[in-house]
Automatic annotation (TrEMBL):
Record protein name field: Xanthine dehydrogenase
Keyword Iron: no
Domain Aldehyde oxidase/xanthine dehydrogenase a/b hammerhead: 38-142
TM regions (residue ranges): none
Pfam family, one: Ald_Xan_dh_C
Species of provenance: Streptomyces albospinus
PANTHER family with a match to the protein in the record: ALDEHYDE OXIDASE 1-RELATED, XANTHINE DEHYDROGENASE
Keywords: Molybdenum, Oxidoreductase
UniProt-annotated stretches for the region Disordered: 1-25
Length: 710
């Protein structure tokens, strides 16, 4: 058995001196890599309690109306069917702040795909047959699913996602824009986008002696437990939510979703454990989507490229169920100096599924529009687009005047340009030919805010010299266990393999969800604090540890409630090289390179994977991903992976990610910013700008499919 150095030799600093290989910044392999690669890591649908029944949901087939008749007789007559839940017989739920979870409570159908029944059977196959055998009659009302920039129902919401004000004005935009020697006025559209994580939303629920236990595919089991407690009028101590391994979410699992509520209802109704994995084709209607946006960007500048007027106005949709407003114009409040600016959002409530978070909500679509418009300005003024951005790099946050905690956008642009081989670049469009292919390069900036959420963590020193961290963090594929072990080991001054990390259960201390690129920073801060407290306790005591060891529990409620005097954001620059086939209109990315400044990178292996994943998702947003709403039937037209095209390996020849060593003392004890979302930001604009450089065509509607080019 190995022993720690005596506690008094340890220091509660993050970077302990001494012979230990420093665990922070080490490219450690994920602790669960082998389990995941071999299939022994189990996901929510892979738990099968004895006596488990299977459920299959029934989606509404009209876009707006009421259920007038529900005939479940045929379904119940099928051998092996246990129950069919409807609004007439399902358990009554209390209401919560999330109306999308008020499932099977009333006859109203607010959008196509809304769940109206749930079949429960002995097998998955029978459950599916039973769902098909449910006969529904509706009274329909006329529906409207078409977002237009002049929709009569558009209104200015009070707040947009992220709790930002919908409208901000500084100076006199109209006068400054009218007086500007150079102006760009362009409108960009982003279609509805679907999260489509590899693992669909799934839950397995069982009640035992009044205690509800669910395995749920979620980015944050703490909130799932809170919402289940509210819905079923239980104490949180009567519920356990386990999200041990999660196969991606991209925001769609950031809040509780229908599968967990329906599985718990069905388990209560039938007295059996119930498993429910939402079919892929049903996901777009019930787990959120990135709402489409129509964004008008106007920039006025001097001949020197210095921006004097900037307006970013976004129009989007929400559902009639609840208001969610994609905050696409918010990044324009942070990016560039302009004494006169207007950033505004309007929204219309349509008969559509409720939109929600999708990787970099706000920033991803907003920076597509803004960074495309900046490129148009660069072309107009014949100023290099890297240089133009550097000329407009503000000293303080334009919107608030607050100093940046750190802002290395200009360094990212310069260093990225160097690595990419940006210069020498002929700025003229459509002059590089390689046979039938037109070649071009483009650049765009990226940004993402630093968020942080209150978290509690427990650090335990065992008598045998081992350590254990307990915190309800979630690993959605990011390597959370590994990086938390690194943070704990650094704080404790012990080798990383001496630290066990327990995450993924609501029975652990409550934590921030894995979202807003804030997981590692939020959990890590609490872990660091608990480890520091544990070390102090170890130092204060004499003699060997008691058999049960010693535990310290700390939370970051106070620290995270404080508003920082600094504007805190990660920044980056994305460079793309594309080829456009002049015969077919096909656009392919030849190279994609992201250069980031995101504080200290805690594990380069897992961080690189996050950046590259984001860049790849941005490539999909640029070229292949896009849904639409069918005006006649009101449903999404691209619901499965055959119709909604995410990039495949052949679409991604070279994607590189680099970062600066950024020191920022105004963040958290690790000095880290979030990295989960910034990779997607700016990528679509960089590719679109490269397409213009290649072809001379300014395409302003995503995705850039061949038909748009021809
Ligand atoms: Mo992310 S869209 O905050 O899960």
């Amino acid at each position: 058995m190995s022993h720690d150095p005596p506690p008094e030799q340890q220091t509660p600093r993050l970077m302990p001196p001494g012979p230990l290989a420093h665990p922070l910044g080490a490219p450690l392999v994920r602790r669960d890599a082998r389990d995941k690669a071999t299939g022994s890591a189990r996901y929510a649908a892979e738990h099968t309690p004895p006596g488990c029944a299977y459920a299959w949901p029934v989606p509404a087939t009209v876009a707006r109306g009421r259920i007038t008749e529900l005939d479940i007789g045929g379904a119940l007559a099928l051998p092996g069917v246990i129950a069919v839940l409807t609004h007439e017989n399902a358990p009554r739920l209390a209401s919560t702040d999330d109306p999308t979870l008020a499932l099977l409570q009333e006859d109203r159908v607010p959008h196509r795909g809304w769940y109206i029944a749930l079949a429960v059977a002995e097998t998955l196959e029978v459950a599916r047959d039973a769902a098909d055998a449910v006969h529904v009659t509706y009274a329909t009302d006329g529906h409207d699913v078409q977002l237009t920039a002049d929709h009569p129902g558009l209104y200015v919401p009070e707040r947009v996602n992220g709790d930002f004000p919908a409208v901000r004005e500084r100076g006199d935009f109209d006068a400054a824009f009218a007086a500007a020697p150079a102006t760009v006025d362009a409108t960009y559209t982003v279609p509805p986008l679907h999260n489509h994580p590899m693992e669909p939303h799934a839950a397995t629920a069982r009640w035992s002696n009044g205690h509800l236990t669910v395995h749920d595919s979620s980015q944050g089991a703490t909130k799932v437990r809170e919402d289940l407690a509210a819905l079923f009028k239980l104490g949180t101590d009567e519920i356990t939510v386990i999200s041990e391994h999660v196969g991606g979410g991209f925001g769609s699992k950031g809040t509780p979703r229908p599968q967990v509520v329906l599985a718990a209802m069905a388990a209560r109704h039938t007295g059996r454990p119930v498993k429910l994995a939402l079919p892929r084709r049903q996901l777009p209607a019930v787990v959120g989507h990135r709402a489409p946006t129509v964004q008008r960007v106007r920039i006025g500048a001097g001949r020197d490229g210095v921006i004097t007027a900037l307006a970013h106005e976004s129009v989007t949709h929400t559902s009639t169920v609840t208001e969610f407003v994609e905050q696409a114009a918010v990044p324009a409040r942070v990016m560039y100096t302009s004494p006169n600016s207007r950033t505004a959002h309007r929204v219309v409530a349509l008969d559509v599924p409720t939109p929600s978070w999708m990787r970099a909500p706000g920033e991803a679509p907003g920076m597509y529009a803004l960074e495309s418009a900046v490129d148009e300005l660069a072309a107009l003024l014949d100023i290099d687009p890297v240089e133009l951005r550097i000329r407009n790099d503000p000293a303080t946050e334009p919107d608030s005047g607050r100093p940046f905690s750190s802002r290395h956008l200009a360094d990212c642009l310069r260093e990225g340009a160097e690595r990419f081989g940006w210069q020498p670049r002929d700025p003229r469009p459509a002059v590089r030919r390689h046979g039938d292919l037109l070649l071009g390069t483009g650049v765009a900036a990226a940004t993402y805010p630093v968020y942080i959420g209150a978290t509690q963590a427990e650090a335990h020193a065992a008598a045998d010299g081992g350590y254990r961290i307990r915190v309800n963090a979630t690993d959605i594929g990011t390597g959370a266990r590994t990086v938390l072990a690194q943070i704990a080991a650094a704080a404790l001054g012990v080798p990383e393999d001496r630290v066990r990390v327990d995450i993924g259960s609501s029975d652990l201390p409550p934590a921030m969800l894995a979202g807003g690129s804030a997981g590692t920073a939020s959990w890590g801060w609490a872990v660091h604090k608990a480890c520091t407290a544990l070390l102090a306790r170890l130092r204060d005591r004499e003699g060997p540890l008691p058999a049960e060891g010693i535990t310290a529990t700390e939370d970051t409620r106070l620290e995270t409630a404080e508003r920082s005097p600094y504007s805190r954001h990660a920044f980056g620059a994305v460079f793309a090289e594309v080829q456009a086939d002049s015969r077919t209109g096909e656009i392919r990315v030849r190279r994609l390179l992201g250069q980031y400044a995101a504080g200290r990178i805690l594990n380069p292996r897992t961080a690189r994977s996050q950046f590259i994943g984001g860049l790849t998702m941005g490539l999909g947003m640029a070229l292949t991903e896009g849904s639409s709403l069918d005006p006649a039937f009101g449903d999404f037209t691209a619901c499965d992976l055959a119709s909604y095209h995410v990039p495949a390996h052949a679409d991604v020849p070279s994607v590189e990610a680099y970062w600066l060593d950024e020191e920022d003392p105004h963040l958290n004890p690790m000095g880290s910013k979030g990295i989960g979302e910034i990779g997607i930001v700016g990528t679509a604009a960089a590719i679109g700008n490269a397409v213009w450089h290649a072809t001379g065509a300014r395409l302003r509607d995503l995705p850039l499919t061949p038909d748009r080019l021809l």
